[in-house]
Amino acid sequence: MWEETKEITEIVLRAARKASQEPISQSEQALPGKAIHWPVECAIGPGLEGAIACESKVGYVNGLQGQLVYRGYDIFELCAYSCFEETCYLLLHGRLPTSSQFGSFRKQLAEYRHVPKTLRLLMSFPVEGMNAMGALRMGTNLMRQEFTFGDLEIAKPDIAQAHESDEDTISSEADPGDKAESFYSFDTTNTVVLTSMEETIAVSGSRKPAKGIRHQEVLQDTSSLDSCCHLIAGAPTLTAAIARIRNGQMPIEPDPELSHAANYLYMMTGRRPTEIEERIMDIALILHADHGMNASTFAAMVVASTLSDIYFSVGAGIAALAGPLHGGANEQVIHMLRQIGGPSNAKEWYAKARARKEKIMGFGHRVYKAYDPRASVLGPLARHLALENKEAQVLFRTAEALEKEVIADLGQSKSIYPNVDFYSGIVYSCLGIPTDMFTPTFAVSRVAGWCARVLEYLKKNRIFRPRAIYTGRLGEKYIPIDARHSAGKPSKR
Ligand SMILES: CC(C)(COP(=O)(O)OP(=O)(O)OC[C@H]1O[C@@H](n2cnc3c(N)ncnc32)[C@H](O)[C@@H]1OP(=O)(O)O)[C@@H](O)C(=O)NCCC(=O)NCCS
Fold first, then answer.
1. Which of 300, 312, 403, 431 could bridge to 450 as Cys pair (CB 3.0-4.6 Å)?
2. What is the DSSP secondary-structure string of 152-171?
3. How do the residues of the chain divide into helix, strand and coil, expressed in percent and rounded to 5?
4. Which residues make Cβ contacts (< 8 Å) with residue 256, sequence separation at least 6?
5. pLDDT tens across 124-150, in order?
């Protein structure tokens, strides 16, 4: 599959060999092919540590051995030989596709990558000033628009009317910015014309789907496999558009000839990536696609378990991923490395950060007590990309120096090693992705895992409803406000 980029495959295979030589402490329980008997007994810590919420065949994280598996396939193997589209198919369907299945799946993704109505709605909001994850979350919700109208069973609005009312509210909008200017206007045939200084792109907003898009016919069930493909395909288009709008530029339409990874970079940067860039982006997407019952996956599953739908579930996943303890760490890492300023400052910076009892971004993991296999791949890829990029070279050498300090101090004693977010930011920067789009880029990939796990869970759905141990007071008597002496303290009567 990747004839032209053999050197990158070699980097992955070398990382795999190195990881396999790491000392293994113990092995973690996996029950391949066996169902567990409920109820299960397990020790639970705060943050649901150790809790078993469901069974899954989607993926497996062996934190003690530093092993990550999707549907039985080791992550190194997938990075070396597969591609993101095939990995999505594997996650969703549970098996690798035949060539005809793969062809149809890629075609479907190519169709669903066009989300003109959603973009049109998204651009009616001040995306320029919004948090990027907030904008993406809103965008995935807007992809649900057909159904949102459908939900209003009484007096379902006509979509053409909805378009007209849109026109009234935002006949034009401007973002002069420093360098670029963009303004949007709507013509009377419901075609939205996006205009910038240099380019004019017409995106169909009519009721008839353009370019064979068949959302209206197919997406009847908002938690179907089709809806999942819609979200997997649409998320990069939205993310790239958000990046461009925030930069005072106009969105770029997907190119049906390009792969998922290449399209993402092309729609974001306006430049078709080289084969090496495409390949590295593709590997980064594979590495982030699924990761057990992490916070965002769990958030998506909790929402789905109420029989809400996949669009709302993915929105919940995006919200959870935004936090700095989860997906937001990749942005924080780059800020941290810039703050350190160079490899020679790493030792002193780390000593001060430890003295302040700060957590070092990009290190530690709830599950991994060994080197995160995703970091094992991303580190060497960052090194490779940084060879031809001076700024990235400094960042990479600073990261290497910091990694040495942290592992020397906390590796043995607390099993703290670099996680997926430590090197991903350097990789993304070299690929032309702006820092504030790192976490949305994580979401572009993870949407596959969220969908696969939600679809699996819904087959035997039971609404999530854990308990909290009540440690508050009982038997309080209500005191009228005028009789209360001080806040929070019950008055003596
Ligand atoms: C990922 C993370 C949230 C896991 O949290 P957790 O499982 O709840 O682990 P805890 O926060 O309880 O940490 C356990 C111990 O390791 C230490 N630790 C964990 N991560 C650390 C880090 N990044 N830097 C320094 N110390 C760290 C904690 O201070 C704690 O020490 P203590 O036992 O002396 O109190 C945590 O490691 C972290 O905040 N990392 C930084 C953010 C990050 O990179 N997130 C991306 C995850 S992919």
1. 300
2. --TTPPPHHHHHHHHHHH-S
3. 55, 5, 40
4. 110, 113
5. 999 999 999 999 999 999 988 755 554
Tell me how many helices (H) and strands (E) the chain has. Answer: 21, 6
Contact call for residues 436 and 277 (beta carbons, < 8 A): no
Q: Strand, coil or helix: what is 216?
A: helix
338 lines ligand 1 (CB under 6 A): no
Q: HSE on the CB side for 234, CA within 13 Å? A: 27
Q: Write the DSSP symbol of residue 209.
A: P
What count of other Cβ atoms lies within 10 Å of the Cβ of residue 361?
A: 23
Going from the Cα of 87 to the center of ligand 1, the distance in angstroms, rounded, reads 30
- Closest residue (by CA) to atom 26 of ligand 1? 359
- Does residue 317 contact residue 300 with C-beta atoms inside 8 Å? yes
Catalytic site residue 365? yes
**pLDDT tens digits, 220-245:** 466 689 889 999 999 999 999 999 99
Task: Write out pLDDT tens, residues 435-481.
Answer: 999 999 999 999 999 999 999 999 999 999 999 999 999 999 999 99
How far apart CA 302 and CA 313 sit, in angstroms, is: 8
Take residue 250 and report the two structure tokens written for it: 């106009």
Instruction: Choose among 468, 482, 458, 367: nearest CA to 65.
Output: 367
Query: H or E stretch including 192?
Result: strand 191-196
> CB 474: neighbour CB atoms within 10 A?
5
For residue 407, what is the DSSP state? I
pTM: 0.86
